[in-house]
Amino acid sequence: MPTLATTVDGLKLPNPFIIGSGPPGTNLNVIAKAFKEGWGAVIAKTISLDASKVVNVTPRYAKLFGDDGKEVIGWENIELISDRPFKIWLDEFKRCKDMFPDGVLIASIMEEYRKDAWVEIVERCQEAGVDGLECNFSCPHGLPERQMGSAMGQDCEVLEEVCRWVMGAARIPVWAKMTPNITRIEDPSRAALRAGCNGISAINTIRCVMGINLDTLRPEPTVEGMSTPGGYSSKAVRPIALRMVMEIATMMEKEFPARSLSGIGGIETGGDAAQFILVGAGTVQVCTGVMKFGYECIKPLREELLAFMEKHGFDTVADFRGKSLSYFTTHHDLVQRQAGRKAAREASGRKAGGADGEWSGDDFVRQSDALSRD
Ligand SMILES: Cc1cc2nc3c(=O)[nH]c(=O)nc-3n(C[C@H](O)[C@H](O)[C@H](O)COP(=O)(O)O)c2cc1C
């Protein structure tokens, strides 16, 4: 019988499903709900020392629907980090640990580019009893004006320096959460790991414009007639997140094999989670999925992942972590591997297919479709 229980950076999780930082971890009420429903760990909504600088707007979400007009496939938010006072958060962290001593509670922290601020937020959160820290180097909107969030995560030198400050003060595991709004996500990941962070979380949201309303001609979400680019999440970002987690894991396998990796982005099923684990994640985080389906979705998530493990004879998450990484190669290598088969096909009188000269305008849709098959 397979088990979902897993130990990451010394933290004992009953399963690898973690509440990702955001609305599903925005106060003690909802964090308690998550533990009661059986989530493996909770990462609280990102906090900073001075919440009075955080001012949210409404509406701050916009959705992309599938063809049925009902299924949400993409979700934009222009939400900032928590607007709740730091003192209240510290109190809630303590109460949460009293209520759920075995629950793994991780504080998500974000500060300005000042050593004293980072050291203070690390020390006060760990004094409150949290089990780990996730540094948010990835919030794409609002706070970059204060050099926070993704502005920090896009500058490897600054990121490494801040991570060294954090690691100088931390006595509990620290994960660095990466922004996908960068060309090579391995570079900031490497900088954080070089500074001693225990693990990487990826990805945060992808900068986007959800759409333009064709009646009002205004971008959405529309606030007082105006908008600003936001962060994209949910199902639609999963292939991009999977690629980035694969790239980070490939780098980590070679350079930091003992560190941890938490995969995030559009995870809604146990099968989605399995895919992130297959490309190197040891845990997976869910944020928008909980906003779409509720905390109860942990039950099918666990069942589907267990069914996948049973089907393949994997006893633990570690048994299949990173198992698909060796199936990625260069495009050049794919050409070489296929050359022999193409030649054999042509020798037997059949066309190999796929050459640019073979496209015809009349048969375009069928030809496009055919190229997704062998
Ligand atoms: C409404 C909303 C608020 C979020 N707030 C935070 C936050 O405070 N800190 C953070 O690190 N990530 C935040 N995120 C990003 C998520 O944790 C996650 O990285 C991203 O949404 C992709 O995963 P998902 O598709 O499961 O939501 C937020 C996401 C959403 C949708």
Q: What is the element layout, followed by pairings?
A:
Elements: E1 6-8, E2 11-13, E3 17-19, H1 28-37, E4 41-43, E5 61-65, E6 72-77, H2 86-99, E7 105-109, H3 115-127, E8 132-136, H4 150-153, H5 156-169, E9 174-177, H6 186-194, E10 199-202, E11 206-208, E12 211-212, E13 219-220, E14 230-233, H7 238-255, E15 260-264, H8 270-278, E16 283-286, H9 288-293, H10 298-312, H11 331-347, H12 364-370
Parallel strand pairs: 3-4, 3-16, 4-7, 7-8, 8-9, 9-10, 10-15, 15-16
Antiparallel strand pairs: 1-2, 5-6, 6-14, 11-14, 12-13
This protein binds flavin mononucleotide.
Short description:
By secondary structure, the chain is α/β, with parallel strands linked by helices. It is built from 12 helices and 16 strands.
Could you please describe the fold and organization of this structure?
The structure is a single chain. The radius of gyration is 22 Å and the shape is globular. The chain is built from twelve helices and 16 strands. It folds into two domains: 6-324, Aldolase class I (TIM Barrel), CATH 3.20.20.70; 331-370, no CATH class. α3 packs across α5, α5 (156-169) runs parallel beside α6 (186-194) and α8 packs across α10 (298-312). Helix content is 36%, strand content 16%. The mean pLDDT is 95. It is of the alpha/beta class and 374 residues long. The strands form four sheets. It has an eight-stranded parallel β-barrel with strand order 3-4-7-8-9-10-15-16, surrounded by eight helices. The chain has helices at residues 28-37, 86-99, 115-127, 150-153, 156-169, 186-194, 238-255, 270-278, 288-293, 298-312, 331-347, 364-370, and strands at 6-8, 11-13, 17-19, 41-43, 61-65, 72-77, 105-109, 132-136, 174-177, 199-202, 206-208, 211-212, 219-220, 230-233, 260-264, 283-286. Residues 20-23, 45-46, 75, 77, 79, 81, 108, 136, 139, 177, 204-205, 233-234, 237, 264-267, 286-289 line the site of flavin mononucleotide.
